[in-house]
Design brief:
The protein is built from 2 helices and no strands. It has 83 residues and is an all-alpha fold. The mean pLDDT is 77.
Length: 83
Amino acid sequence: MSAGITSSPAGIESCGHRVVPPNVCDTEYATNTALKIVTSILNYYLPLALMYALYTKIFVEASRLISIIFNAVRCPYVRNVRP
């Protein structure tokens, strides 16, 4: 069964053969820490940062527009009154 299976430099078996026993619920990449870190950054943290930046820009723009609308609708007499 092990004939034709070669190890790659990263320790991941190749040639399409499953090296994890069939009764074990795991993948061939379970011991590859670098792959786990890179995929978690690309799949979770990068989209999270992009969404955070976009929602912050939307919030800032919405706040700016609300203040413009509020100042435009207010009575001109109230605007010039100082406490």
